[in-house]
């Protein structure tokens, strides 16, 4: 299949989804002009001394889409395909996502165009600290709060926090979330995105009168979100038929042993060759006959060329932007129930909010309390979106965007424009 057919500009997708939802709620032109576009975009040069002594130049980005409802919030990703348009799209989606779960944050996103798999820990640390120093004017606990994303983790956040704190002269844990527990991180943060995905799947199954026990599942992307969601579904009695990562796909018609697969992935770094499984092709996973499909990798996994092959009843978007607008229309015509990304994967930013609150209060919560709060937030948001879906007879994605955009629009209308 030609690459040009399946490539979709993520920012164009974000703008199309915005316009569709804005039209659905009858948003006036003036408000659209105030909330549609990013507030700030920073492109930075990131020179890094590599282990061989040579200087290599990387390009970094930080985009703040909105601070209308609170500090900008969003992850930082390290990936060879990071572009400004991708970061703008992700920042935009973060704005609506925070509003959907009704937490007092706006949207931001950051990234560096690099291949972290080809870099040593020392190179990654030096790159992270240089990038942090370049975006210092934008970030801060009351201004813009980064978090982990694709190929970044708690160690990355520790480096960012330390770099920021050293410039201020004292420790400021609230500048990032997703930190190690020993540096002010929150219990439950590591599994928050996957747990939120699980909670929304529970709600979808209840709405569709499906039993989660015995339900069949395919997971594209076995990183943090995909593996945690698979683990929780496995524990709930679902049968995980297939899983993929960047190395390949594994399948077992009787269900994969997810705890053992997670252990192997942690040890070897891949799922390929998992015992008691057979290899399948990536497109076979997406077209698998199953109850629940979880795209948990990168954008544009389902597009006009392959959406027609989907046979799942529910698609839970653990990734950001895995379905293009053209694919959405195809899936809608097929009657597939889609849990949109700005609802489905909002567990991560929700527990990031909990972490930020704990850092600001210098008072930390028990894991059970965090899980209970996350359950309440995610299921309340699902019900709010489902209500719009049913009352307005619009797809779940449009319903979620209507809810998020409507809340941001209300805030900007009340605040007005300065000066």
From TrEMBL:
Binding site for substrate: 73, 97, 352
Stretches assigned to the Glutamate/phenylalanine/leucine/valine/L-tryptophan dehydrogenase C-terminal domain: 186-416
GO molecular function term, any single one: nucleotide binding
SUPFAM superfamilies: Aminoacid dehydrogenase-like, N-terminal domain (SSF53223), NAD(P)-binding Rossmann-fold domains (SSF51735)
A Gene Ontology biological process term: L-glutamate catabolic process
Positions that bind NAD(+): 193, 224
Residues of the active site: 109 (proton donor)
InterPro entries (UniProt xref): Aminoacid_DH-like_N_sf, Glu/Leu/Phe/Val/Trp_DH, Glu/Leu/Phe/Val/Trp_DH_C, Glu/Leu/Phe/Val/Trp_DH_dimer, Glu/Leu/Phe/Val_DH_AS, Glu_DH, NAD(P)-bd_dom_sf, NAD_bind_Glu_DH
Site annotation Important for catalysis: residues: 149
Keywords on record: NAD, Nucleotide-binding, Oxidoreductase
Sequence similarity: Belongs to the Glu/Leu/Phe/Val dehydrogenases family.
Protein name in the entry: Glutamate dehydrogenase
Protein species of origin: Candidatus Sulfuritelmatomonas gaucii
């Amino acid at each position: 299949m030609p690459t040009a057919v399946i490539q979709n500009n993520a920012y164009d997708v974000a703008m199309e989804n915005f316009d569709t939802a804005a039209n659905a709620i009858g948003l006036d032109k003036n408000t659209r002009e105030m909330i549609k576009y990013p507030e700030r975009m920073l492109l930075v040069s990131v020179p890094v001394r590599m282990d061989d002594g040579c200087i290599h130049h990387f390009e970094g980005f930080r985009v703040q889409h909105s601070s209308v409802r609170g500090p900008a919030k969003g992850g930082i990703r390290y990936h060879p395909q990071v572009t400004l348009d991708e970061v703008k799209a992700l920042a935009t989606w973060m704005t609506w996502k925070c509003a959907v779960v009704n937490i007092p944050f706006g949207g931001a996103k950051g990234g560096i165009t690099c291949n972290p798999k080809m870099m040593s820990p020392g190179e990654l640390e030096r790159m992270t600290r240089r990038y942090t120093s370049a975006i210092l004017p934008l970030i801060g606990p009351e201004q813009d709060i980064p978090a982990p994303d694709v190929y970044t983790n708690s160690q990355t956040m520790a480096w960012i926090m330390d770099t920021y704190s050293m410039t201020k002269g004292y420790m400021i844990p609230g500048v990032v979330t997703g930190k190690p527990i020993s540096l002010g991180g929150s219990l439950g943060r590591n599994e928050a995105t996957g747990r939120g995905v699980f909670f929304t799947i529970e709600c979808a199954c209840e709405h569709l009168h499906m039993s989660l026990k015995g339900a069949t599942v395919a997971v594209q992307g076995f990183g943090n979100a995909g593996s945690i969601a698979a683990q929780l579904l496995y524990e709930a009695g679902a049968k995980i038929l297939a899983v993929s990562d960047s190395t390949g796909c594994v399948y077992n018609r009787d269900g994969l042993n997810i705890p053992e697969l997670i252990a192997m992935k942690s040890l070897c770094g891949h799922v390929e060759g998992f015992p008691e499984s057979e290899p399948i092709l990536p497109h076979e996973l997406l077209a698998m006959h199953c109850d629940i499909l979880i795209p948990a990798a990168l954008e544009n996994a389902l597009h006009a060329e392959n959406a027609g092959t989907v046979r799942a009843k529910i698609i839970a978007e653990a990734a950001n932007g895995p379905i293009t607008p053209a694919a959405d229309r195809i899936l809608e015509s097929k009657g597939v129930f889609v849990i949109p990304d700005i609802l489905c994967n909002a567990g991560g930013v929700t527990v990031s909010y909990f972490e930020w609150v704990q850092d600001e209060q210098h008072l930390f919560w028990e894991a059970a309390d965090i899980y209970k709060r996350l359950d309440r937030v995610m299921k309340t948001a699902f019900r709010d979106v489902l209500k719009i879906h049913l009352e307005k007879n619009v797809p779940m994605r449009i319903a979620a965007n209507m809810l998020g955009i409507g809340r941001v629009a209300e805030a900007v209308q009340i605040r007005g424009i300065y000066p």
